[in-house]
Write a structure and sequence with these properties.
The protein has 10 helices and 7 strands. It is of the alpha/beta class. It is globular, with a radius of gyration of 18 Å. The protein has one domain: Rossmann fold.
C-alpha cells in the first residue's frame, strides 16, 4: 500500500479511535463523526463492510422497479448496481448525514430517476409503495433500528422484497466474544444486536439468510460477524399468512 494510502487510513483509524461524539442529536453525531472521513469513507470501508455486492445480486432488482435504500451513506450502492440503476422507475436514496449525502449526490448527478434525500429512516415514506427496500450496514447505526424495519415493511408493496446486510451478535458467538464486539463497535456509534434477524424473520417471508464472518483491516486473524437477509412482504390483507407481524406485536413477543 502506498504511503499516501497508509496516511489516509491512519486518519480514518484515528477518528475511529476517538469514537462518535456522545452529545447532540443523532444527526449531529453522525455529521461530526463522518464529515472528516467522507472523502476516504468508501476506500477504507470496502475492506470492512462485506456482503454488499452479494446483497444486491440476491435481491434480484428488476428494470422498472421502484427502489429505496435506507441509510445510503455515500451512495456507493450505485457502483454495485451499475447501469441497472438508470432502468428503475424510481430510486430513492435516504440518509441523515449531510457530509455523506454530498458524495451521494455527486454520484447520482445526471440520473433523473434517482433522488438523494436527507431524512430519518425511521419515519420517511415514499410517495407510493415500492418493490424493493435495502439497507447496507445502516441498522446498526440507528438507535431505533426496529422502527426502521417496521417502516420498511410499511413502504413495501405486497410481494415486495427487503434486503439487509449488517454486523450483528450471533447466537453462537459466545458471551465473551459478543461482549467484545458490542464494546468495540459501540465506541463508534455502531450498536450491534442479536435481534435484527429475529425481527426480519418474524415480519417477512425469508428468501435467503446467512450468518458470516469477515476480516477486519489492520487486525490480522480477527473476523467480525455479519449477516445477509432477503425477505418478502406477504399480502397482509390475505388469510393464513404467518408473516403478518407488526412492530408492536414483534416487540411484545421479544419482551
Amino acid at each position: 500500500m502506498a504511503a499516501a494510502d497508509l496516511a489516509a487510513d491512519a486518519r480514518i483509524l484515528w477518528r475511529l479511535l476517538c469514537g462518535q461524539p456522545k452529545s447532540g442529536s443523532h444527526a449531529e453525531r453522525l455529521q461530526a463523526f463522518y464529515a472528516p472521513q467522507a472523502d476516504r469513507y468508501d476506500v477504507f470501508r470496502e475492506r470492512l463492510l462485506h456482503g454488499r455486492q452479494e446483497l444486491i445480486e440476491r435481491l434480484g432488482l428488476q428494470p422498472g422497479a421502484r427502489v429505496v435504500e435506507l441509510g445510503c451513506g455515500t451512495g456507493s450502492s450505485l457502483l454495485r448496481i451499475g447501469a441497472r440503476a438508470g432502468q428503475f422507475a424510481s430510486f430513492d436514496m435516504v440518509d441523515l448525514c449531510p457530509a455523506l449525502l454530498d458524495v451521494a449526490r455527486q454520484r447520482a448527478a445526471g440520473h433523473e430517476r434517482i433522488r438523494v434525500i436527507e431524512a430519518d429512516a425511521t419515519s420517511w415514506q415514499p410517495d407510493q409503495p415500492v418493490d424493493f427496500v435495502f439497507m447496507s450496514y445502516a441498522l446498526t447505526m440507528i438507535p431505533d433500528w426496529s422502527r426502521v424495519i417496521a417502516n420498511a415493511q410499511a413502504m413495501l408493496a405486497p410481494g415486495g422484497r427487503i434486503g439487509v446486510v449488517d454486523f450483528h451478535l450471533p447466537a453462537a458467538g459466545g458471551r465473551l466474544s459478543n461482549a467484545f464486539w458490542r464494546k468495540w463497535f459501540g465506541h463508534d456509534g455502531v450498536h450491534l444486536s442479536g435481534e435484527h434477524l429475529a425481527m426480519l424473520r418474524g415480519m417477512f417471508a425469508e428468501q435467503f439468510s446467512a450468518e458470516l464472518r469477515a476480516p477486519v483491516p489492520y487486525l490480522p486473524g480477527v473476523q467480525a460477524p455479519y449477516y445477509l437477509f432477503v425477505g418478502e412482504r406477504g399480502d397482509l390483507a390475505g388469510e393464513g399468512s404467518q408473516f403478518q407481524t407488526t412492530l408492536p406485536e414483534w416487540l411484545k413477543k421479544a419482551g
